Amino acid sequence: MANNDRLLVQILLLVLLGASLWVLAPFWSALFWAAVLSFASWPVMRVLTRVLGGRQALAAGLLTLVWTVVVAVPLVMLGFNLADHIKDATLLVKGFQVEGLPPAPTWLAGVPLVGDRLAGFWQTIDQQGAAFFDTVRPYLGQVGNWLLARSAQIGGGMLELALSLILVFFFYRDGPRLAAFAQSLLQRLIGDRAEHYLELVAGTVQRVVNGVIGTAVAQAVLAWIGFTIAGVPAALLLGALTFGCSLIMVPPLIWGPAVAWLFWQGEVGMGVFLLIWGFFVISGVDNILKPYLISRGGNLPLVVVLLGVFGGILAFGFMGLFLGPTLLAVAYSLLSDWVGSPVGSILASANEPADKVLHRGDEHAGSAP
């Protein structure tokens, strides 16, 4: 009878846990980002709490306010700017429908090999503008629907960001209690190895954060150098915006329009330079520097880190940048513990002379009953 009561209690606990996860499902992404943000900046939180005389709630409020100013305000401004540009692009297309295309830029005919052909194509589109827009009008509706869907996603992302910044305050304030709870839960599940896996997860997440921020800083500096060489106005501001876009892995949002502006101004040579610099240097450094910084200081093989980073992004989106390496790190450590033997001893056993192995087998055979 006691066993039946215990089984019933376990079933009820599982049902309660499943219902709780179901309730929290819409907020998993916001909870995840709040946890990552608070964990990555926990050393700053510790110093600020010490400076404020141990008043943890005040330190949590101040640091949350800093994150709101540093992260939320630029992203909201970027969202409004994108909305304005979408509106301007719509008005531009309508103007083309009524008035036709403006005269071809002077530099277009000067493009080597294909300049005359491009200028002629421009004139053809201008002369047959009405027929051209009649042809592309159905596709313009599809593009409009796509932009509307992306705008809705941007709005949802802004709300999710606001919720994450609210939740990060509670992670700051209750961080030690949450850490103690997680450690107690893991100790009940896996015993003495709980501290090892907590350190493994913490170290992996910290290295990923360092890799993301370090790569964003490098891309911002390289973008500033490229903008300065190409003569793009407000190069320092554009470099700072590149840092923000690098955090969400879309630096072409900054250097791409700068390339288009250079071409529009007739600076073809500098436009080509910035295009190559942006594609191979600014965006290309992400594929080299980020995996190196994430694997640096850990005992994971670089191939595991690379698979975790790129596979995680493909599987979970931007969230997978943190989930992928962490999951593979825990799985790699679990397999290593399960095997239970260092790689060196396994290789040593494999390289033993065959006669020793056979002799050992004969001894076992002789000792058998």
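(ticket continues) Second input and output from the same batch:
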Amino acid sequence: MTIKDLLMWDESLFRDSDAFEFDYVPDQFEFRDTQMRELAFQIRPALRGGRPLNTVCKGLPGTGKTTSIKKLFLEISESTKKVVPVHINCQIDNTRFAILSQIYRKLSGHHPPASGTSFKQVFDSIARMIQEQETVLVVALDDANYLLYESEINRVLYTLLRSHESYEGTRIGVIVIISDMDVDMTQVIDARVASVFQATDIYFAPYGPEEVYEILKQRVNQGFFPNVISDTLLRVIVDYTVNAGDIRVGLDLLKRAALNAERATRRQIEREDISQAFEVSRFLHLAHTIKSLTDDDRKVLLALAEISPTMTEMTTGEAHKGIHETVKIGYTRFYEIVEKLHALRILDLHYRDGRGRTRLVTFRYEPTKVIEYLQ
């Protein structure tokens, strides 16, 4: 390494570090044209003053659902004041009152009074603002699986979608974003909500290797100065990302690897920077995915992780027997959860060599780390 290869104390490899943040909305957003067109079609009636069509966006974590919605909402905000898009993060705001407070803030520019304000008063104000401003509301409930507990999703949808019955002229559409592929909204919502929800499903498939490469390459061009990472090492990060099944792993790897190179005062990322970064980034998918699991999923996963050190290679039958004292669950339901955890890339399911079709269960992550993130 020569002097010119060393990074000075006041220099950086980052042209725009925001390009590697998970909530960043890129100017160029590829490989979701079909989904974006379908979403635009669902919202189109609102542009003419009508009620938007309701939508369910479904796909595994890190498949572009949130970015698609934010990109579309940004375009709407820049083109018209007659449609008000509101994006709600249901991991944070997961009660009806919290969600209505965010809608109130979007419409008024400030939060409702912190105390002494009832749910009805907040919604009365929301409906009045919609009427007075003659606007149409489009609400995206992101990570809506956090509303499934205690039927909160029904209370939220009923309030929003039946508002026109009590407040003439209000027009509200809802986009529900789900990362749990097992959730069937037709089974989750009750009859009084189903009659007005009638949503169209839009599926977000996992990105393929070349799509991951192009997405990360765009972020590299936008976020780094030239020649910070070679194409060969970018392909290494692509492999890690595809294996995790979550584009956020790749973004986090790029950011951490560049920070490691800066710490070593280098002008380029080296393989050791990626290896060190992966020791942290590889658990990102695990952490985000665990947040989206149901109580039953978490109980089964925890029980499997606890017995894994004593049963390093388990058939599905042995695994079910091993956790049965801890989690009282039938084999059919157990196997459904195991298949889900396999689809989410926490567990691996593979057939044993030899006779029969026995399937083995193994962990993609160290069981101790799984337990740590579950707790």
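Agent notes: The chain has three domains: 3-17+207-287, 33-204, 294-374. Residues 33-204 form a domain with the Rossmann fold fold (CATH 3.40.50.300). Closing as not reproducible unless the customer responds.
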